[in-house]
Specification:
The chain is of the alpha/beta class and about 350 residues long. It folds into two domains: about 1-115 and about 255-350, Isopropylmalate Dehydrogenase; about 115-125 and about 145-240 and about 250-255, 3-Layer(aba) Sandwich (Rossmann fold). It is built from eleven helices and twelve strands. The protein has helices at about 15-35, 45-50, 60-65, 85-95, 160-180, 195-210, 220-230, 240-255, 295-305, 310-325, 340-350; strands at about 1-10, 35-40, 70-75, 100-105, 125-130, 140-145, 150-155, 185-190, 215-220, 235-240, 265, 275. The protein has a ten-stranded mixed sheet with strand order 2-1-3-12-11-4-5-10-8-9, with helices on both faces. A two-stranded antiparallel sheet has the order 6-7. β6 (about 140-145) and β7 form a beta hairpin. α1 (about 15-35) crosses α9 (about 295-305) and α9 runs antiparallel to α10. The longest helix has 19 residues, at about 15-35. The protein is globular. Bound molecules: 3-isopropylmalic acid and manganese (II) ion (MN). The site of manganese (II) ion has 2 residues, from α8.
């Protein structure tokens, strides 16, 4: 029997609750498709930091490198200053494991409410590919004369030819493999960020020559936001930098029914990838059995796709589709008509 080595980082807040449901579903589907999982749990997160002062050591990272994939709940703790855990754990993992793609599907399932008027499952079905290791997130910059009236704060966007090219290459390949509308939109800001997005744009059209079957399109980030609301059906695959990708995927999440269902993958195609619901730790809902685990369950589905368990992944997606069509009334925390655990059970019952 095939056995996958999976790392599990339940993390903070509601992370552990949603990860538990995702694991429940993965275990159910593994029985059906005859594969096994060796789950290794790691206690990285706010609680461990508060207790021991440890954030994420080189040894922690070495352990993760032995895994074929990682499932993550959420990182962020109300008693820890903003940035410490996010940069010290989540971003550090993305960077050191070189997970240079953040793949975030924006799919509206039948029966799910979207705030967009007159738009449904046929119109909202695209994927955002966010560069995940560079740009404004790379940490370039600093203060001068900090705390004085002459203070200067510089935050640099780092864009390397190599980093941009590998992200764009992934996006072209993904669009080809997805084989839907075969349209790739570069989202940037070439009219103002004339260095960074000039590099992106030049590289984009260079690579495009190798993919004559793929329609290419360019959209400024502000216009992208407008079209995502007005005509989301324009999009098939969007590729963009780290910061813009962060912003437009929250917009994407809300048009697909909210953070309760938005899943993502931090992908290193040649290394260890990490799958996570994009919603965060939602501390106010912690321990109440009200948070929606579907995003974590869908992240588990994405993980199975990477592992090559396509049928099992498809089964999970079908079960999610049935549950949101037939049973779950609203995807928001506390409004589902089911508890967190019950949603997990419901998905299992549809498998
Ligand atoms: C996300 C989150 C993170 C990001 C934060 C928590 C650092 O918003 O995964 O989108 O900005 O990438
Ligand atoms: Mn974000």
């Amino acid at each position: 029997m095939k056995k996958y080595n999976i790392g599990v980082i339940p993390g903070d807040g509601t992370g552990p609750e949603v990860v538990e449901e995702s694991i429940k579903v993965l275990k159910a589907v593994s029985k059906k498709y005859n594969f096994d999982m060796d789950l290794e749990y790691y206690d990285f997160g706010g609680e461990r930091y508060l207790k021991t002062g440890e954030i994420l050591s080189d040894n922690d990272i070495e352990k993760l490198k032995t895994r074929e994939a990682v499932l993550l709940g959420a990182i962020g703790h109300p008693d820890v200053a903003p940035g410490i855990l996010e940069k010290g754990i989540l971003l550090k993992l993305r960077f050191t494991l070189d997970q240079y793609i953040n793949l975030r599907p924006v799919v509206l399932y039948d029966g799910v409410d979207t705030p967009l008027k007159d738009k449904g499952a046929n119109e909202i079905d695209f994927v955002v590919i966010r560069e995940n290791t560079e740009g404004l997130y790379a940490g370039g910059g600093g203060f001068l004369k900090k705390g004085t009236p002459d203070e200067i704060a510089i935050q640099e966007s780092i864009n390397t030819r190599k980093g941009v090219e590998r992200c764009l290459r992934f996006a072209f390949e993904y669009t080809k493999k997805r084989n839907k509308r075969k349209k790739l939109t570069l989202c940037g800001k070439t009219n103002v960020l004339t260095y960074a997005f000039n590099l992106w744009e030049r590289t984009f059209y260079e690579l495009a020559k190798e993919y004559p079957d793929i329609e290419t399109d360019y959209c400024h980030v502000d216009a992208t936001c407008m079209w995502m609301v007005k005509n989301p059906e324009f999009f098939d695959v969007i590729v963009t930098d780290n910061m813009f990708g962060d912003i437009i995927t929250d917009l994407g999440a809300v048009i697909q029914g909210g953070m309760g269902i938005a899943a993502g993958g931090n992908i290193n195609p040649e290394g260890v990838s990490m799958y996570e619901p994009i919603g965060g730790s939602a501390p106010k809902y912690t321990g109440k059995n009200v948070i929606n685990p579907l995003a974590a369950i869908a992240s588990g589905q994405m993980m199975l796709e990477q592992l090559g368990e396509d049928k099992a992944a498809q089964d999970i997606e079908n079960a999610i589709k049935k549950a949101v069509k037939n049973d779950i009334k609203n995807l928001g925390a506390g409004k589902m008509g089911y508890g967190t655990k019950e949603v997990g059970d419901l998905i299992v019952s549809y498998l």
